[in-house]
Amino acid sequence: MSTIHPQLQSVFDWIDAHRDEAIVDLQTLVRQESVSAQRRGLEECADLVVRLMHDDGLPAEAYPTPDGPPCVIGHLPSGQSEKTLLCYAHYDVQPPEPLDKWIDPPYSAVIRDGRMWGRGTTDNKSGVMAFIKAAKAWLQITGEPPVGLKFITEGEEEIGSIHLGPFIEANPELVRADAMHCLDGGVHPSAMVPDIDLGLKSVMFVELIARGANADIHSLNAPLLPQPAWDLVRALNTIVDENRRILVPGWYEGLWELGDEENEQLEENARRLDMDKLKEEWGIEQFALGREGVEALKARAYEPTANIAGLTAGYQGPGSKTIVPNEARAKMDFRLPPLINPEKAIERLRQHLKDKGFGHIEVSIEGRIPEPPYKISVKEDISQSIIRAAETVFGEPPVINGVSAEGTILKHVWMPTVLTGFAQPDCNLHAPNESLDIEHYIKGIKYAAAIMWEYGKQK
User: Fold this and answer.
1) CB 344 within 8 A of CB 250
2) Which of 65, 64, 84, 68 lies closest to 76, judged by CA?
3) Cα angle value 451/50/385 (rounded, 5°)
4) Residue 228 · residue 312 · CB < 8 Å
5) Do 6-200+373-457 and 202-255+304-365 show the same overall fold?
6) What does the DSSP assignment read for 22-80?
């Protein structure tokens, strides 16, 4: 590992000396409920983010979005660099249910076993605070950041950033920058160094709805009734085959063709990573279709997916109930790698179901048509800056992946963007007992500070 520049080391030392402050402020943020799916506590959380930023000497304002929660934005110029780096995070969290699975209350932010426990500790309130504390550290040591900083912290990432797009379209200068990075990821369970994602798979949220009679009817009448649950099952079975290939005609049109750069990254990751640790974390014996090595890594990064996230029909309580349900629903998420067109994809799905005899099944888009997928090069300034920052803080090169996410902003204001993070593998994000290792949190603040430093050095 190369020697750390004295100025950056001073920032690291300040972060270490003020770790208790960083921990308490994260606890304060986690204790504020902010569930976008249920519209709970979002305005209050946005106001809290503004207050925390102001307390640390950072400019911030909560901007209302059309019919959505506020977006917190601030701009901290720098006299040391002509570049501006956009720091993206989100203050909303997943619903905490099922509540009975939590050891501690989901908004307690209790510290136990070297971790902070609570919804949002990892996803993504620690990312919000890492940006804030890293910027404060630079202000305390040098009086200004090493690169111009813009901050955007939104409140609907967990439901697809529904209202962010129109807001950015109307206010592009608030976020315009030379590059963007997101601290909304983790470290790889094998190498324990940050994952770095150089692009976006669009996520298209779809609900399929099959309807029958005007009410649930006694199942004695099943021979005479439409059966939405069976219709839905049969329709779903036409979308994907047993090898996970999507059967919708034209679905793979425009799919990104891997070049030397991407293949070299896959080969390097296959050499470095012990994928068995990922199986252990997930509690499975093998990956789907027996995939291993490069094949497994390539599928995860670049393969289109059609996932069934939820199925609902009829009675779900204890015992039995003799009914033919009048409605059946399936919630799906389709992940579209570069360069599949989301608008064409949804129309192809509707046409496919119609052609297969399921035109009566409603195809409902949750939110909006998603942003297009994208891919950037490892040679971009922001890519190289984050790679060097990861080596500085974690002691080894990061794991460079193909694509992941945040793309809503890029639909209206293009800039090269990288997703990375610092959460430990068993953080339970999106699940009960979400937690963040305290030492990973402190490293995350240093990681953010080092990214600012490295990008500011780029000419």
Assistant:
1) yes
2) 84
3) 5
4) no
5) no
6) HHHHHHHHHTS--BGGGTBSHHHHHHHHHHHHHHTT---EEEEETTEEEEEEEEE--SS
C-alpha 400/C-alpha 194 separation (Å) is 9
| Fold for the domain defined by 6-200+373-457 | Aminopeptidase (3.40.630)
Spell out the residues 6+ positions from residue 347 whose beta carbon is closer than 8 angstroms to its own: none
Measured in degrees and rounded to the nearest 5, phi and psi for residue 196 equal: -125, 120
Among 419, 416, 420, 424, CA closest to 441: 424
Query: Across the strands, what pairs with 369?
Result: none
Model confidence pLDDT, tens digit, residues 428-455: 999 999 999 999 999 999 999 999 999 9
**Domain residue spans of the chain:** 6-200+373-457, 202-255+304-365
Distance CA 278, CA 188 (A): 8
| CATH entry 3.30.70.360 includes domain 202-255+304-365 | yes
Over residues 400-427, the pLDDT tens digits come to 875 544 567 887 888 988 899 999 999 9
Residues in the chain: 459
Closest CA to 69 of 160, 172, 156: 156
C-alpha 95 chain-centroid distance:
15
What ranges in 89-163 are assigned the alpha helix state H? 125-142
Question: Do residues 447 and 140 lie in contact, with contact meaning Cβ atoms separated by under 8 Å?
Answer: no
Q: How far apart are CA 459 and CA 456, in angstroms?
A: 8
pTM: 0.81
Tell me how far CA of residue 73 lies from CA of 89, 90, 343, in angstroms: 11, 11, 30
Q: Residue 280 phi/psi, 5° resolution?
A: -65, -40
